[in-house]
């Protein structure tokens, strides 16, 4: 599933491309509206992340041209403009969503996935790391092409970590995703669950590791030896 990133700030491009690549998307970055229109003529992108203020003008002015080129593309505007009426102007001009900077990376990914789901065109691609392939839509995990079965809470934990590859998963977020609301949880339950998952991944030669980031949470990365 192809995404066009239209952004002229290198740090933001690296952040967006890294997160979306980890989530299984195929991303092309460009730094101007002119280059974006050229790319849109060549490739059938499914979604565009569009910075509003670009070297060649306000991207909102180009939305009618974009819609003529690719009527079905999903457009998510990223902008530091958050004055009254800015979001309405962007949405009324043809954008599907409008997110202000600075933005939460998890929220951005959730919005991308939500917009692609509404298109009804394609299923989400599997997320991969090391020898692992995680198909969230089908609820399946494969390691080296073989099914990898986990207990319910292990699966919830692994899924949460997979959706944040190379980024810290805060303890609070993991607790919410793994354990039900109002459920009695013993101290250290999450740490015990992580230890069990680590062992299962190592035994299966998954090629990825879960690291503790003290005071913050856990981090899933590719194994250095894989």
Automatic annotation (TrEMBL):
<dbReference type="GO" id="GO:0000156">
    <property type="term" value="F:phosphorelay response regulator activity"/>
</dbReference>
<feature type="DNA-binding region" description="OmpR/PhoB-type">
    <location>
        <begin position="124"/>
        <end position="222"/>
    </location>
</feature>
<protein>
    <submittedName>
        <fullName>DNA-binding response regulator, OmpR family, contains REC and winged-helix (WHTH) domain</fullName>
    </submittedName>
</protein>
<dbReference type="Pfam" id="PF00486">
    <property type="entry name" value="Trans_reg_C"/>
</dbReference>
<feature type="modified residue" description="4-aspartylphosphate">
    <location>
        <position position="51"/>
    </location>
</feature>
<dbReference type="GO" id="GO:0006355">
    <property type="term" value="P:regulation of DNA-templated transcription"/>
</dbReference>
<keyword id="KW-0238">DNA-binding</keyword>
<dbReference type="Pfam" id="PF00072">
    <property type="entry name" value="Response_reg"/>
</dbReference>
<dbReference type="GO" id="GO:0032993">
    <property type="term" value="C:protein-DNA complex"/>
</dbReference>
<dbReference type="GO" id="GO:0005829">
    <property type="term" value="C:cytosol"/>
</dbReference>
<dbReference type="GO" id="GO:0000976">
    <property type="term" value="F:transcription cis-regulatory region binding"/>
</dbReference>
<dbReference type="InterPro" id="IPR036388">
    <property type="entry name" value="WH-like_DNA-bd_sf"/>
</dbReference>
<keyword id="KW-0597">Phosphoprotein</keyword>
<dbReference type="InterPro" id="IPR011006">
    <property type="entry name" value="CheY-like_superfamily"/>
</dbReference>
<dbReference type="InterPro" id="IPR001867">
    <property type="entry name" value="OmpR/PhoB-type_DNA-bd"/>
</dbReference>
<feature type="domain" description="Response regulatory">
    <location>
        <begin position="2"/>
        <end position="116"/>
    </location>
</feature>
<feature type="domain" description="OmpR/PhoB-type">
    <location>
        <begin position="124"/>
        <end position="222"/>
    </location>
</feature>
<dbReference type="InterPro" id="IPR039420">
    <property type="entry name" value="WalR-like"/>
</dbReference>
<dbReference type="InterPro" id="IPR001789">
    <property type="entry name" value="Sig_transdc_resp-reg_receiver"/>
</dbReference>
